[in-house]
Amino acid sequence: MKLKNVELGFIFLFMFVLSLVIPKIASAEEYKPKNMNEAKSQIENAVDGDVIDLVNLYNENEFKQDGNDFSSLGTISVKNNITIMSSDPKKAKYGIYEAEGARAVYVSNISLEIAEGKTLTMKGHLYLKGPEDKALISGDGNLYLTDRMNLSGQNGHPAIYLPKGSVMIENLMSYTGEDDTGVRLKYYSKITGGDSIAHGADAIFAKTVEVNQTNLQFENGTLYTVDRGLFIRGGNGLSDTAQGGRGINADNITIDLSGKKIPAPYRLSQVAQAVMAMVL
Questions:
Q1: Mind listing the pLDDT tens digit for each residue in 172-210?
Q2: Is the predicted pLDDT of residue 56 greater than 90, yes or no?
Q3: Within 13 Å and on the Cβ side, how many CA atoms surround 49?
Q4: Looking at the domain assignment, is residue 188 inside a domain?
Q5: 86 within a domain of the structure (yes/no)
Q6: Residue 14 covered by a domain
Q7: Structural domain of residue 89, as residue ranges?
Q8: pTM here?
Q9: Which of 33, 142, 158, 257 places its Cα 20 to 30 Å from the Cα of 280?
């Protein structure tokens, strides 16, 4: 009996020491930053599996004056496998004379850099515009886009520049519709390169790009008409000699448009046309 107690004591001591030596694995969390400084901090300190929901940054100014301008923050580092998104800002209040508006969180002059070997997932109600001096999304990592996404480069820079990484685009879609306020709403999933006098930028520059538009389903389908799938376009050259950019510039490109037939109320009249314009 005494020997057995000694053995149990040794096992308990061993497990206690082991708990001190082995680092604790942080559990994934969901964050909703209240301002742009919180957003940068939470993105850069996020661990694998964390979700950063930017819905609290919603305002009615869109890309106009007094909108969300991240130019003072510099480049935001994505160091782990995380998700940046916005849930539906459905409680947004529109002015009485507002004819239509994108139900989305707008952020201008934002720059995200993905670390090597890491994957950034982006989805939800976001309209993001890159800075004047670099791509919106850059780095040595990978990018996964799904649900909805509107990304645009500026001043001759790509929206996405991941020369060593991969970009996976899965079932992005656009819609128009009316909510219970009677205000017409829209959301266009688009990825566009920046225009400039010198040259137009590629919308996406990466090692590998896969576009998978095979199951164009949409939440609340009875409320919205899915009138376009995904549009990807290179930037325009704004002079007589300037060349425009490509929609997709990659070593390996895979595009799958074998979508299943979707019953009413869905209507997908322009999906194939919009997606095929990407590589021209």
A1: 888 777 766 666 777 889 999 999 999 999 999 999 999
A2: yes
A3: 5
A4: yes
A5: yes
A6: no
A7: 28-277
A8: 0.82
A9: 142
